[in-house]
Design brief:
Bound molecules: ligand FNR
Oligomer: single chain
Distance between the termini: 33 Å
Strand order of the largest sheet: 3-10-9-8-7-6-5-4
CATH superfamily: Aldolase class I
Structural class: alpha/beta
CATH topology: TIM Barrel
Strand content: 5-15%
Number of domains: 1
Number of strands: 10
CATH architecture: Alpha-Beta Barrel
Number of helices: 14
Shape: globular
């Protein structure tokens, strides 16, 4: 299949990987309205075309927490990301660092943190979930520190997992019995897997020794439900602060009041996110939520945004709406599934090219030039 647009990778991934894995990434929660709105609202935001401004020199570079980024993009934490290609998180991290942008490793990664961190030159970011076992969290933070991680992404929008019905249909969640064995058998020819799914319990990176092995995929989603902590509150963040002195980003903010709380708490950044429409279906798209949050806290805290970004134009839109930088989730997972490291590298090239065109035609010479003035006011379809 010929890849010419970033969105081509979705179809390519669908052809290449087993259905349960494709739908785990592609799907959202409940009726998937928020998932759909994330993409549609963002794509519907009207950019303001400007001409004849001598746009011969243009820079996409930016900086977050003293870390330089070749463009305002980081790869989002994606649980089980390592299943989408062999040692998938390592491949994605390589492509990101080659391009000069950060890679974030999920708490529920496949590859261990030290393996990913030592595969590239720039420090990776580490994402932490709140688990009932605080000892585990402390241990995870210690491992992250030892692996040279500086930036912590603390995800707060998953006190309980949202219901993802596609996963139930595909056999990704729930007890599968024979269906599961069929899926596993079907997967053998495609992967020389050593990721643990076939029962090597030691290898599920960060979660391996934890309350029953999700590696056996008895019921991964149920495992999340048992171990994640609905009692999470701002106090837990204070507890984490004691162990973490580097930059801390709170991921999963969707309301200006919570954004203000994050500033009061002393967070270094927030990710405006609805978890890619995978948690509470029915909440606003991030394109819709972001402007009010930017009004409330822009300049007080770094604002990152994700959910629904499928093109370089979408990145430009998010920045114009008030983000300092974005995270890519599914966009890079599809590319990873379709073509591994080379796929992610090519995807990032395509994003860069699209951003350059969009910035040239909106008259923005640098990332700081993008703002509300880059949009046609009144026609924000969000
Ligand atoms: C995620 N996301 C996520 N977030 C997080 O903080 N920790 C995690 O382990 C995961 N796992 C995960 C798995 C899969 C398959 C997906 C698609 C997403 C959410 C992710 O970081 C990000 O917020 C969304 O993916 C952004 O939306 P888009 O870009 O995928 O639409």
């Amino acid at each position: 299949m010929i890849i010419s647009a970033p969105t081509d990778y979705r179809q390519a991934a669908k052809r290449r990987i087993p259905p349960f894995l494709f739908h785990y990434a592609d799907g959202g929660s409940y009726t998937e309205h928020t998932l759909q709105h994330n993409v549609e609202d963002l794509a519907g935001i009207a950019l303001r075309q400007r001409v004849l401004k001598d746009m011969s020199s243009l820079s996409l570079e930016t900086e977050l927490f003293g870390e330089s980024m070749a463009m305002p993009i980081a790869l989002a934490p994606v649980g089980l990301g390592g299943m989408y290609a062999r040692r998938g998180e390592v491949q994605a991290a390589r492509a990101a660092s080659q391009k000069g942008i950060p890679f974030t490793l999920s708490t529920v990664s496949v590859c261990p943190i030290d393996e990913v961190a030592s595969a590239i030159d720039r420090p990776i970011w580490f994402q932490l979930y709140v688990l009932k076992d605080r000892g585990f969290m402390k241990h995870a933070l210690e491992r992250a520190k030892a692996a040279g991680v500086k930036t912590l992404v603390f995800t707060v929008d998953m006190p309980v997992p949202g219901a993802r019905y596609r996963d139930a249909h595909s056999g990704m969640s729930g007890k599968l019995g024979p269906a599961r064995r069929m899926v596993q058998a079907a997967m053998h020819p495609f992967w020389a897997w050593d990721v643990g799914i076939h029962g090597r319990p030691h290898d599920l990176g960060n979660v391996s020794d934890y309350r029953g092995h999700p590696t056996e995929l008895e019921d991964y989603i149920a495992w999340l439900g048992q171990n994640f902590d609905p009692a999470i509150s701002w106090k837990d963040l204070e507890w984490i602060r004691e162990f973490w002195d580097g930059p801390m980003i709170i991921k999963g903010i969707l309301d200006p009041e919570d954004a203000r709380e994050a500033v009061r708490f002393g967070a270094d950044g927030i990710v405006v996110s609805n978890h890619g429409g995978r948690q509470l279906d029915g909440v606003p798209s991030t394109a819709r939520a972001l402007p009010a949050i930017a009004d409330a806290v822009k300049g007080d805290i770094a604002i990152l945004a994700d959910s629904g970004i499928r093109s370089g134009l979408d990145v430009v839109r998010m920045i114009a709406l008030g983000a300092d930088s974005v995270l890519l989730g599914r966009a890079y997972i599809y590319a990873l599934a379709a073509a591994g490291e080379a796929g992610v590298a090519n995807l990032l090239e395509l994003f860069e090219k699209e951003m350059r065109v969009a910035m040239t035609l909106t008259g923005a010479r640098c990332i700081a030039d993008l703002g509300p003035d880059s949009l046609v006011s009144g026609i924000n379809h969000g």
